[in-house]
Amino acid sequence: METGAQPRTPPGVPRTAEIPPEVRESITDFLYYEADLLDERHYEEWVELFTDDARYEVPVRVTREKKAEWDVSPTARIIDDSKEMLQVRVARLNTEYAWAEDPPSRVRHFITNIRIHPGDTEGEYAVRYNVLIYRSRGELPRYEVLSGQRRDVLRETPDGWRIAYRQVILDQSVLATYNLSYFV
Amino acid sequence: MQTVNTASVPEFVQRMWHTLPEGRVPAKIFNDPAVYELEKERLFSRAWCFLAHESEVPHPGDYVLRWIGDNSIIVVRDEHGEIRAHHNRCTHRGNQVCKAEMGNASHFRCSYHGWTFKNTGDLIGVPYYREVYRESLRKGEWGLKPVRIDTYAGLIFGTLDPEAEPLDEYLGGFQFYLDFFLKPGPNGTEVYGPPERWVADTDWKICAENFGGDGYHTPVTHQFGFQLGFYPSSGKTHFMGYAVHIPGRGHLIGIGHTPGLPPFVGFPEEVVEGMQQALSPEQIEVFSPARMSVGTVFPNLSFLIQPFSLTPKQPGLKFCTMRLWHPRGPGKIEMFSWCLVPKDAPQSVKDELYRIYNLAFGPAGTFEQDDFENWTNLSRQNGASSAADFDLAYFQGLDWEPLKDHPGPGLAFTPYVTEIGFRNLWGTWLNYVSTPPGERVDPSRVPPAFHPPQ
After folding, report:
1. Mean pLDDT in chain B?
2. % helix, strand, coil for chain A, step of 5
3. Which member of A39, A148, B46, B202 lies 3.0 to 4.6 Å from B161 by CB, making a disulfide possible if both were Cys?
């Protein structure tokens, strides 16, 4: 940096420099809190962190040649939920018949590399960060680790930060999990 | 049966010739290394295996990478529009020539010594051809090894057996039922996007069986759907409908009926019109009253049409999923799950159908999650050593009579919940894995799946 070189940042990747430290701290704290709600399985509180117009997407990742225009499918999704659909998933988990989560998975979300940029709308921020998700289930020593990047739009509301948009880009084209009965 | 050389077939598989007609299936077939080896040698090397949907390779040069058994296969549309399949193996040292799972290429160039193949498979480039081969290499003989393919209603199948019967014969009349999934209009179906793929410690066979019409599991495994108010049927009528199988061929379908549902309920208006044009009166008679349909093309390709909605207590729309249960080892699969949409439907309808499919199926699907919970656990239990001596109960419908007035091919039974088609499925499987390499698989040897009282 002393030579005046700028850090190499691809186009479209947000920089955090212009974000006031208190906003940065507040967003970081919110993301940690949200991850904790998931890991502790407080799903009903968790789903209320989404705005009513929220969209939650997990696109399909595809192995392509380097020159290809995309490797995150523009059409195929693993999850493409509204808040209402997320509420359906939570309601399902609360029935006695969500067999995939009984006994529950032990899940841990690790969040790093948080970068924040002002959003397109006043009071919104575009936040990109890495997420590593560990899952263990049952008495078997096997576990799964999924790695990905979350691209959120967080909105400031009178009740605090809310998630208006979340895209989770996973780093496998063939997922090493037998199901995604937990939230990534 | 006397001509079968079963020398390398495990005892618990040989036993099936006697136990299956009595309604017993050895648990160990659902997770065993010797069974997996037999399946590679005798089943996936001879059957017509699903490769791709034509809409995945719409333009010249488009390709996808798929599997037959443990063989990587390039499926590509050449410059003349013809679909071809090649082994993904350079003829010089065997290196993988195509490394992306989809794309567009006029040729494939090996990254080792640079041999280059046109998408037709022809060898067109050999570095230092004159200097090192001195024209002794006949390029015409060293193209990518082709795989025999055939298509039905947009589905591309391949077989490694040059002697295999034509695909039409192999399907054996099951086309009548496949049309319900594949002909929602005069122009058929297309995939909405690339498939979702994931791996599981699950044997492919239990998945193929379940999607052959296991209506029995629905009220328990997917009870949440009833609890939250998603289903137009109740547990009381859920077992009603028809189970059809093609004897000796393995293909099977379950067609669930709920009394009082209007014809074609749950299909968008445009799709109903398309189906009425594309299907025969007999097909319309069978399918228009169906609540849902779920079927398997032997060995490992399945389809499902069922109504679902984004939130409970809605009328629901009928989406279609196509899935391939690809074996990746003993008790292990790689899943390919597609959503098929009617090609003629407006984009808004395609989008909505895909979103509904997504909530129900794929790795995060609310139905799929619980299926894989069961299938993974049962595959583990059936891989245990004691499972070789343990027979599972396949008694449903042993003494039933087939319907006499069913308008479609194959044998039809009512109600939908029965295990008759599963016995035909495992009889067909048994026939393949019992027939040594070099001999023809004779469908007439498959034991009958039911024994009506005399």
Report:
1. 95
2. 20, 40, 40
3. B46
CB-based contact B101:A64 (threshold 8 Å):
yes
- Rg over alpha carbons for chain B, rounded to the nearest Å, is 23
Residue B216 to residue B109: CA distance in whole angstroms:
50
Mutate to test the interface with A, among B97, B191, B366, B379 (most CBs of A within 10 A): B366
Do the chains contact at A98 and B354, CB–CB below 8 Å? no
Q: What angle do CA A91, A94, A99 make, to 5 degrees?
A: 110
pLDDT of residue A15: 58
By the 8 A CB rule, do A127 and A19 touch? Answer: no
> Who's near B165: CB < 8 A, 6+ residues apart?
none
Residue-level length of chain A = 184
Cβ–Cβ contact B332 with A under 8 A: no
Q: Which residues lie below 8 Å from residue B373, measured CB to CB, with a gap of 6+? A: A99, A100, A179, A181
Determine the distance in angstroms separating the CA of A183 from the nearest CA of chain B, rounded to an integer: 9
Is residue A3 scored above 90 in pLDDT?
Answer: no
Of residues B189, B185, B119, B121, the one with CA closest to residue B152:
B189
- Contact flag A174-B197 (C-beta cutoff 8 Å): yes
DSSP A29: H
Residue with more model confidence, B237 or B34 = B34
Please state the three-class secondary structure of chain B as a single string. CCCCCCCCCCHHHHCHHHHHHHCEEEHHHHCCHHHHHHHHHHHCCCCCEEEEEHHHCCCCCEEEEEEECCEEEEEEECCCCCEEEEECCCCCCCCCCCCCCEEECCEEECCCCCCEEECCCCEEECCCHHHHHCCCCCHHHCCCCECEEEEECCEEEEECCCCCCCHHHHHCCCHHHHHHHHCCCCCCEEECCCCEEEEECCCHHHHHHHCCCCCCCHHHHCHHHHHHCCCCCCCCCCCCEEEEECCCCCCEEEEEECCCCCCCCCCCHHHHHHHHHHCCHHHHHHHCCEEEEEEEECCCEEEEEEEECCCCCCCCEEEEEEEEEEEEECCEEEEEEEEEEECCCCHHHHHHHHHHHHHHCCCCCCCHHHHHHHHHHHHHHHCCHHHHHCEEECCCCCCCCCCCCCCCCCEEECCCCCCHHHHHHHHHHHHHHHCCCCCCCCHHHCCCCCCCCC
> CA nearest B110: which of B85, B61, B74, B141?
B74
User: Is the N-terminal amide bond of B436 cis, ω within 30° of 0?
Assistant: no
Percent of chain A residues topping a pLDDT of 70: 91
The tens digit of pLDDT for each residue in A97-153 reads 999 999 999 999 999 999 999 999 999 999 999 999 999 999 989 999 999 999 999
Q: pTM for this one?
A: 0.95
Kindly report whether the peptide bond that precedes residue A103 is cis, defined as omega within 30 degrees of 0.
Answer: yes
Nearest to B100 among A60, A64, A95 (CB): A64
Residue B7 confidence (pLDDT): 47
Q: Which residue has the higher pLDDT, A19 or B125?
A: B125
Write out pLDDT tens, residues B44-90: 999 999 999 999 999 999 999 999 999 999 999 999 999 999 999 99
Of A62, A99, A178, the CB nearest to B194: A62
Residue range B362-377, pLDDT digits in tens: 999 999 999 999 999 9
Cα gap B437→A90, rounded to integer Å: 52
